Amino acid sequence: xxxxxxxxxxxxxxxxxxxFEAQTTHGMIRFSEWQAGRWVIxxxxxxxxxxxxxxxxxxxxxxxxxxxxxxxxxxxxSVDSIYSHIAWIRDIESKFSVDVDFPxxxxxxxxxxxxxxxxxxxTSQTAPxxxxxxxxxxxxxxxxxxxxxxxxxxFSEIKRVIEALQVVDRHGxxxxxxxxxxxxxxxxxxKTTADAKQRSQDEExxxxxxxxxxxxxxx
Length: 219
What we know:
The chain is α+β, with helices and mostly antiparallel strands.
């Protein structure tokens, strides 16, 4: 039995995102067809009509243009009914003047939540934690962040991770600690002594040592 075959395991980095079919606020969707070559942030919330989750949905709405510019689609998930989702979304849109334009999964049987390890039984056997799965255009899980029910997500970090992953893919580089868009990135370390010697003489790079060099990129 593999890790993903177990009852409540979470797909790890580099795993294919588990496929599923589910009822959402935008109708029935098969994930693999809906994802279809674009980046996706799949996130879970503990329950509709709860205070922390409400603030998070408002922030996801505020991030909508940022995500669209980077071809990132959002999809929410909780174990509430489709009617609860619709009522809560209408309430959020009315009270906070936002547009919840992404689908929210009605995962009453916990099938999706358990495929993605969103149910952390030491925390709760019935409600998902605040998981965030970053899934690339190939359907591969690239990053996972989980928060407990009592702590709302950092949306600056969610946006930072998306930008970093896409920069890494476009330029074949790495991003240092606390990297944000516009800052220098790390180039791959040299693999031979000759390359290491040449690296220290490359004026286009800012080299702290032969193994740690950074550069600015146009992106």
